[in-house]
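Replying to the earlier thread about multi-chain prediction with a worked example.

Input:
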Amino acid sequence: MSHISIIGTGNMARTIGTRAVAGGNTVEIMGRDRAKAADLAEALGGGTTTGDWGTAPAGDIVVVALLYDGVVPAVTQYGDALAGKVVVDISNPFNATFDGLAHREETSIAQEIAKAAPADAQVVKAFNTVFRHVLEKGRPDIFLAGDDPRAKASVGAFVESLGLRPLDVGGLKMAHWLEGAGVITVGLANHGVGNLDFALSVRELPF
Amino acid sequence: MSHISIIGTGNMARTIGTRAVAGGNTVEIMGRDRAKAADLAEALGGGTTTGDWGTAPAGDIVVVALLYDGVVPAVTQYGDALAGKVVVDISNPFNATFDGLAHREETSIAQEIAKAAPADAQVVKAFNTVFRHVLEKGRPDIFLAGDDPRAKASVGAFVESLGLRPLDVGGLKMAHWLEGAGVITVGLANHGVGNLDFALSVRELPF
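Result:
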């Protein structure tokens, strides 16, 4: 069982929160709008609590479930409140044409978070290759990138508590390529593959 | 049935050639070393022919199966001999640490080929996310990127003749992210996933 805080009250916060509660984890919801956070906490049930935006999260794992351009500002605003936490970045910084990333250089939101977060916070990229409703309905593979093995292991255990398979792709630098895998996923959807009901996965032989 | 020319005499040339012959396609092998090309053609059987390096390929689809740093020089050397051809780039330009690409900017070998090839040649990225022995033993998904719908359709038909599923990810610019998917594949292998006997795939709900 993991202690999870989710920053955000949108669709991905709801979906991950729902699976987290079902998986027996404790969940806290933190939203800029405290009433929205309380509503989501109540909807999730299972003893889900509400935390104040910008204060120290109750969870050991903090899932930042915001639109990509709000992620680094939020982490910056939380600042030392994230000391010692495992921060999970699920964002997809698509460009306007959905065939590239919003940042031109070879970086990622996850790497930018790592620069903004306290030195003893650990960032893990996860969940970004999965459409929300596939995460609701199915058991998609969850790709992980991060520099700290213990942080990655704790996110991996959380992913397993959701009934999903964590797949380690390497260090945090690989978050750039996971963001690219998000671009591929949208590219497939835009070119006639799978009617959005699919996920990038790892298949092992024989197949 | 497709008419295929393969530039190269290495492992990927052999594997794609073997599947191409089995799929009922006509195959031509072109190698700098003509004797090696003739040996591979003989090994492939099924009427496989040998062509002279740098001359007009017999096939409509030309698979460049060289190490990545030899691809653009070879296409440049072929020059107008590739006029009207569909050129398939299967390369993986890994950096020295296998966690990024050899080119720093947001480009791809496929896009660089398009600059070097005749204006009426069409470039399609394909096959680069698949380990060779998985292509030998299994039926991995084949991701395609390219700007010309007809060229992509003809490569798609060739992929289907191999018993594999072509998946369109979008325009040639997406080749950059497919090269990134190659980096993810190696990252997974280097972090304990799948013992090399796996491939990135698309799974469709329910799962």
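The radius of gyration of chain A is 16 Å.

Feel free to reuse this layout for your own posts.
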